[in-house]
From TrEMBL:
SMART domains listed in its UniProt record: SH2 (SM00252)
Tagged with keyword Flavoprotein: no
Name the UniProt record assigns to this protein: SH2 domain-containing protein
Organism of this sequence: Wuchereria bancrofti
GO biological process: cell migration; enzyme-linked receptor protein signaling pathway
Gene Ontology molecular function, alphabetical: receptor tyrosine kinase binding; signaling adaptor activity
Coiled coil location: none
GO cellular component, one term: cytoplasm
Length: 129
């Protein structure tokens, strides 16, 4: 599992309340680098959620906005809550479902990301005998 240290405390990021239900989402890819994420994002509105190997204490929403790959940190670094602009969500799943269901873009750093097409994590199935 992926963990980070905060001086005296070691916390598994996947056990944070904000990560509840994340492992059951097809668009959640676990640990994935930026270059790999960008290689699977092709069209406007493509998106996925990942853990960056370089940002140990956060989840990253990667997607295509205005034909450019964008990467947004999802947890507030002070309290590990899911915040986008003035909204606070209990979980990352809630954030994604709200923005997809209401067709509201995620706005961050001057970019608008519409969550149109989730990029599903590839899982190789074992051949049957």
């Amino acid at each position: 599992m992926f963990a980070f240290s905060d001086h005296q405390t070691s916390v598994n990021i996947c056990n944070l309340p904000a990560a509840l239900g994340l492992d059951r989402q097809p668009w959640y890819h676990g640990e994935m680098g930026r270059a790999t994420a960008e290689s699977v994002l092709r069209n406007e509105g493509d998106f996925l959620v990942r853990i960056s190997p370089n940002t140990a204490n956060n989840f990253v929403l990667s997607g295509i906005a205005n034909s450019i790959a964008r990467h947004f940190l999802l947890l507030d670094e002070n309290d590990q809550k899911v915040r986008k602009q003035q909204q606070v969500f209990e979980t990352i799943v809630e954030l994604i479902e709200y923005h997809r269901g209401e067709n509201v873009p995620i706005i961050s750093e001057g970019s608008e990301l519409h969550l149109i097409r989730p990029i599903v994590k590839f899982t190789a199935s074992l051949p049957r005998r």
